[in-house]
């Protein structure tokens, strides 16, 4: 680790396919949106992002059914310091998203910080983060504290690309850092 750095953390990006996980990872890594021709993720991808001297390994797990069945995510979710769960806000059926999230919640050991991202807020029929929180996530996450953000990872019109993406990520990383500190303090007692 570089001297003066404030730690290395692993954050896992989960969600069904096509919701914008890789677009979010790309934006966070590069600071600009991905090309329109972004390809579906095979198994997983890793980006390294530096936030105020902390290095974050962001693991972007492919959301296709076969990856859930192959349990590709399991090894990452078990050791993650933080979790980002992404949905496409323009959807109307969240059954498969719920399956991914419920599976992940069973795998996380400690009470790691969780952020839910309601992506594609640019689409005219997008459900608001508040609506999704009340009607979908509060039920599944009743034993977890989490925060929901509405984002636009890649706006085909170009104007809103990246909206709220860094804010959501920085919120999580601040929580992750504080969480880690609490654990160290408890061990010292
Ligand atoms: N309208 C809109 N499209 C998006 C947004 N984010 C991603 N997309 C598009 O959704 C598709 C799937 O994105 P991708 O990042 O590959 O999703 P992943 O399968 O979850 O990794 C691509 O065509 C992206 O350009 C967004 O915020 N708004
Ligand atoms: Mg992907």
How would you describe the overall organization of this protein?
It is a single chain. This protein is α/β, with parallel strands linked by helices and 189 residues long. The protein has helices at 21-30, 65-70, 74-79, 95-107, 129-140, 165-188; strands spanning 8-14, 44-51, 54-61, 82-88, 114-119, 146-150. It has one domain: 3-Layer(aba) Sandwich (Rossmann fold), CATH 3.40.50.300. It is built from six helices and six strands, in the order βαββααβαβαβα. The chain has a six-stranded mixed sheet with strand order 2-3-1-4-5-6, sandwiched between helices. β5, α5 and β6 (146-150) form a beta-alpha-beta unit. The radius of gyration is 16 Å and the shape is globular. It starts with 7 loop residues before the first strand and ends with a helix. Magnesium ion binds at residues 21-22, 40-41, 60. Guanosine-5'-diphosphate binds at residues 15, 17-23, 36, 38, 40-41, 63, 119-120, 122-123, 152-156.
